[in-house]
Amino acid sequence: xxxxxxxxxxxxxxxxxxxIDAGMFHGERLELLDGSIVVREPQASPHFTGIRLVEDAxxxxxxxxxxxxxxxxxxxxxxxxxxPDVAVVPGGPRDYRDAHPARPVLVVExxxxxLEVDREVKAALYARGGxxxxxxxxxxxxxxxxYRDPVADPSAAIGWRYATxxxxxxxxxxxxxxxxxARILVADLLP
Length: 191
Prior knowledge:
Blueprint: H1 13-21, E1 30-33, E2 36-39, H2 45-62, E3 66-70, E4 86-90, E5 106-111, H3 115-128, E6 133-138, E7 143-152, E8 160-168, E9 173-174, E10 184-185
Parallel strand pairs: 5-6
Antiparallel strand pairs: 1-2, 3-4, 4-5, 6-7, 7-8, 9-10
């Protein structure tokens, strides 16, 4: 068998969810990214601290009527069910009892060693899913990367990217698109 005849199997979100329901993964930290089942990296202390800081800042900024979900699945499309570190969706937890949310207004990844995957793969998936805004708390450089305006781009990973990208330092502030009256200091998101 030649290498060119080997083709990996691409899972659908439906197949992935059925395997989870059947208990096939026994609590493994996984996510479905563009048809591939990917093992999530273990969490170092700065990563988890960053997640908690983002969660606190977004709960304060968004307030009632919004669910700030930590590492919860997002039913992005038929081939992807990522688990962003933090996602903001309208409503409350019970609104998603029967199905994962599909269109968060904001997703945030806290990235150290996973920085390139979060930038190149996950951000492209979020853009393809039509999510207006994606943030990456870049622990390597202690900055916030803000991505907006998803566009199709055949040269980008998975054929999508964000047209607007900004890099903000600790002294800068950021306003979520879905909550224009809120202003969050980048320093409040950094461990």
